[in-house]
Design brief:
globular; 25 helices; disordered N terminus; mainly alpha
Length: 585
Amino acid sequence: MHALAGLATAGTLISANPVDYVIIALYFVFVLGIGVMARRSVSDSIDFFLSGRSLPAWVTGLAFISANLGAVEIMGMSANGAELGISTVHYFWVGAIPAMLFLGVVMMPFYYGSRVRSVPEFMFRRFGTGAHLVNALSFALAQLLIAGVNLYLLGSIVHALLGWPLWLTLIVAAAIVLSYITLGGLSAAIYNEVLQFFVIVGGLLPLTLIGLHRVGGWSGLKDKITQFAATAPASAKVPPADQQLHSWPGQALSGFSSPVWSVIGIVFGLGFVLSFGYWTTNFVEVQRAMASNSISAARKTPIIGSFPKMFVPFIVIVPGMIAAVLVKEIGQLKAGGSPPGGASGEGVKYNDSLLLLMRDILPNGLLGVAIAGLLAAFMAGMAANISAFNTVFSYDLWQRYIRKDHSDDYYLRIGRLATVGATVIAIGTAVIASSFSNVMDYLQTLFGFFNAPLFATFILGMFWKRMTATAGWVGLSAGTLSAVLVAFLSEDAFGSLSRGVIPISGQGASFVAASAAFVVDVVLSIVVSLVTKPKAAKELRGLVYSETPREDLIDPEEQRLPWYRRTLPLAGISLGLVIILNFLF
């Protein structure tokens, strides 16, 4: 252990001591132990891919939010906090909570009640082969790319801690995630995600508390951000202090100079298209709810998850803001400099904000807890991507299009092999993620490509029975291509390949691309539906809202529960709290 600690201090970003390594080692023992124990409950493919549909709502609710606490939440949001300030909360209070509540109240009864094994399988039942194949392929590709983001950031932590080459850290980190998913399937992933939720909160909360103490509390942080913005060179393009310290109208985040267009971009592009597209159709999240033991538990899963979700900004965005005024290198970067070092060794990036803040303010012991929290976050994110990928690959691609009518054991083996293959490919996609200074820009671009058009197809098909199968795949394909085209024409979504024809960059470009995908998808779907033949109404029960009896969408047993355990009152409380937070900040 002492030799390991010595290795860590030689040219590494973080100087940990033996007690930190003991804490991290204990965490990994628990992670692998959960995988071994979950292995005993895996007897068929439903156990492996959907936990036998046997888990209570509180478990799936915490797993639902923990699966999302990966690269996006931790490094991406802290990077945004450092670069843009408090307007980043829109990804949570506008860009998550309303869609999570809509998923629980409206859409989960269709997913769970239809007994489908994946979101693409629901697409197959509603629209047939064309839309199903487009959805399954695009989803599988997206998960491989996003798993690479989580793996890259996980490898960055190990590199910063031990000084190992990035290629070696990617392999080691991938092997750890692979081991427990391969052993225990979704159950191992979900129970680890519950553990990881508490580890993440325990690891990151001290950063906020100690950091705020160092800068003189919230008022001291506001004063320092105001002073920095006033003295930064104009060439650095630092957002004005009022834009960094107030969430609305959010010009720092959207990139629009007009307050009106900024609000429209955030509400429609992020709050409706990107948010609803991600939370209501992304099988990574929906899979957790589908593992619940009843339709009532499935509906409450995202609603339970919404309560911790709305407070996550205080342990990821606020530390990023603190790092911008407290960490010398981040301050230099924000002022237009190019400080050397960073987790990658190729220069400090905004993605390094949390790591550098941990280095500067956490004592040993707490440092080990914080590192374990970050490792937990990235493993939860990557495990969620891989477990969703292996389900879609096995059921929606392999079983449906390549090898039909084989034994359950055969598809269980395919699922485990798909897990290995996806992990290996994620090592390659991690290299792509490493080229982005702010991974949030990269991830939002991907969500615009894959989730925004899918949501358009879903929502139109679920509430308009006239929509046809041909319209499903035409709209989905055209929407995806239009998002790619808008991103290509913007200033920097594709790096050096971007054309700069559309004068907007960063996350504002992803809002525009997602909005274009949604509009193109809806318009084409309507036009094509009007000239093609729809399904008979009797075939749409459980797939279209107007054709599904109300009794199919609710659990009659829920009425016997106290009010605070019912779906609609819980959703109402969550919505009220998030409205209050929007007014406060």
